[in-house]
UniProtKB/TrEMBL annotation:
The keyword Membrane applies. It comes from the Bacteria. Belongs to the FliR/MopE/SpaR family. InterPro entries: FliR (IPR006303), T3SS_IM_R (IPR002010). GO terms for cellular component: bacterial-type flagellum basal body; plasma membrane. It is a multi-pass membrane protein. This is Flagellar biosynthetic protein FliR. The keyword Hydrolase does not apply. The chain crosses the membrane at residues 7-29, 35-53, 126-149, 169-199, 220-242. It holds the Pfam family Bac_export_1. It comes from Neobacillus vireti LMG 21834. Role in flagellar biosynthesis. It is found in: Cell membrane; Bacterial flagellum basal body.
């Protein structure tokens, strides 16, 4: 049995791009998914894709193959990083709220990002993942990496990596992440700021009151009460976040494929 060298090279390049995408994209990159499953899923997707590549490679020099492998690695990493950066807005909003309410002293391990996160950030992250899975957003993520082979072929290089367009686009994604994160946290932060001012006035007018024993439970009660009220608005912001995330992935493919 002979192995076609051209098909093997095509499979290698496709596998590198899909695997690097899987280790950075939301949901799939989480540590709660075993690495064996990630590699196996990447192999299956690579086998399905390698037969429908529009411009397969046939033979290249060793140095050119190394550059192509590096290019495929960067494409997969950047494409998954764009989605992950915007998805990180959910955890940013939770971190801002926990800093305001006083929950920042209690932290939990977040397997999705592999770091420690606060209670509210972890809760918002779980809600965002559930909404993404319920709306078949993970299918769109997979569709994004598969569509990348139509925009950036295996044998072509990406000029956007050298002229600064790619780094400029990543900085714009970081800016959008901060903006969406602040929008998610703004209602509760504003409410808690007013509560702090009111409790400060009470503390000045009634100095006999035990501030450290009364004020933290009051803030926590108001926090959860307001959270229930504004929760529908959080799902609306998730809709905007997902639209921005998928739109940014599409724009990134156009930038790299131009």
């Amino acid at each position: 049995m002979t192995i076609d060298t051209s098909s093997l090279l095509n499979f290698l390049l496709v596998f590198v791009r899909i695997t690097s995408f899987m280790v950075t994209v939301p949901v799939f990159s989480g540590r709660q998914i075993p690495n064996t499953y990630k590699i196996g899923f990447s192999v299956v997707l690579s086998i399905l894709c390698v037969g429908i590549i529009n411009e397969p490679i046939h033979s290249f020099a060793l140095g050119t193959m190394v550059l192509l492998i590096l290019k495929e690695f960067i494409i997969g990493i950047v494409l998954g990083m764009v989605a992950n950066i915007l998805f990180y807005a959910v955890q940013l909003a939770g971190a801002l709220l926990d800093l305001q309410i006083g929950f920042s002293m209690a932290s939990l391990f977040d397997p999705t990002f592999g770091t420690t996160s606060q209670i509210t950030g972890r809760f918002k992250n779980i809600l965002a993942i559930l909404v993404l899975l319920a709306t078949n957003g993970h299918h769109l993520l997979i569709q994004g990496i598969l569509a990348s082979f139509d925009w950036v072929s295996l044998q072509s290089f990406v000029p956007a990596m050298m002229d600064g367009r790619l780094s400029t686009f990543l900085l714009a994604c970081v800016q959008q992440m901060f903006m969406i994160g602040f929008l998610m946290a703004a209602p509760l932060i504003g409410t808690l700021f007013i509560v702090d001012v009111a409790l400060g006035i009470v503390a000045r007018t009634v100095p006999q009151m035990n501030v450290f024993a009364i004020f933290p439970p009051v803030k926590i009660l108001i926090h959860f009460g307001m959270y229930v009220i504004i929760l529908p608005g959080f799902f609306y912001l998730l809709k905007i976040l997902f639209e921005t995330m998928f739109g940014s992935m599409n724009t990134l493919l156009k930038v790299m494929g131009a």
